[in-house]
Amino acid sequence: MLWGQDDTQKFRYAIRLAAALSAIALYSRDRLMVARIRSSEVEEIHGPLLSELGLLPLLSNLEHWRASGTTDLNHALRRYALHSHRPGLTLVISDLLSPRGYLDGMRQLLRRRHNVVLLHLLTPDEIEPSLQGDLRFIDIETESALDISLDGGIRQLYRDRLDAWKGEIKSECHRRGSGYLFIRTDEPWD
């Protein structure tokens, strides 16, 4: 989630989106809980918040959140589902680039009667890479390296696989009665 520059960085975008959605929920008098997932744990659960009086302390905490390491989204979503006492609308803001996926965790949330919506964030350069030639990619979470030669054919294969992956996620959500929204981080979050 640390990928991207300035306002298009996924983590920064996710924090702003979470803050905006929290404000909407609280001013609508909805019950709100906000949780951060780090590694395979659910950390810093805020709530339940019941009114806009909880918004400023929540925003202050969100401002200090930092991303780090690899996230096991499946495990964290399962843990959240098992420990949440009241089902409700559950918005998952993520790039979904978790090595073990997201589907088992989403299924656990659905079994516990949560209404799940995946807000899938990617940066413009993840969608349409501008790189070319012989390159070494280093995963910023795991530090594993991959050497590739990036030409027009590989670039098209990448786009095709990305579109297929997004399509699979959208189909899986639709099949399970969940929501899916793909968001480019260069689109205004509001």
Which keywords apply here?
190 residues; alpha/beta; two-stranded antiparallel ribbon; 6 helices; globular
Written overview of the protein:
- It is a single chain.
- The protein has 190 residues and is α/β, with parallel strands linked by helices.
- It is 39% helix and 25% strand.
- The protein contains six helices and seven strands.
- A three-stranded parallel β-sheet has the order 3-4-7, with helices on both faces. The chain has a two-stranded antiparallel ribbon with strand order 1-2. It has a two-stranded antiparallel sheet with strand order 5-6.
- The protein is globular and about 55 Å long.
- 21% of the residues are buried.
- The model has no long low-confidence stretch (mean pLDDT 90).
Task: Give a brief rundown of this model.
Helix content is 39%, strand content 25%. With 190 residues, the chain is an alpha/beta fold. A 3-stranded parallel β-sheet has the order 3-4-7, with helices on both faces. Strands 1-2 form a two-stranded antiparallel ribbon. A two-stranded antiparallel sheet has the order 5-6.
Helical coverage, percent range: 25-40%
The whole-number mean of residue pLDDT values reads 90
Morphology call = globular
Name the helix and strand elements from N-terminus to C-terminus, one letter apiece.
HEEHHEHEHEEHE
Radius of gyration: 17 Å
User: Count the strands?
Assistant: 7
DSSP helix count? 6
Largest sheet properties:
3 strands, parallel
End-to-end Cα distance: 19 Å
* Structural class computed from helices and strand pairing: alpha/beta
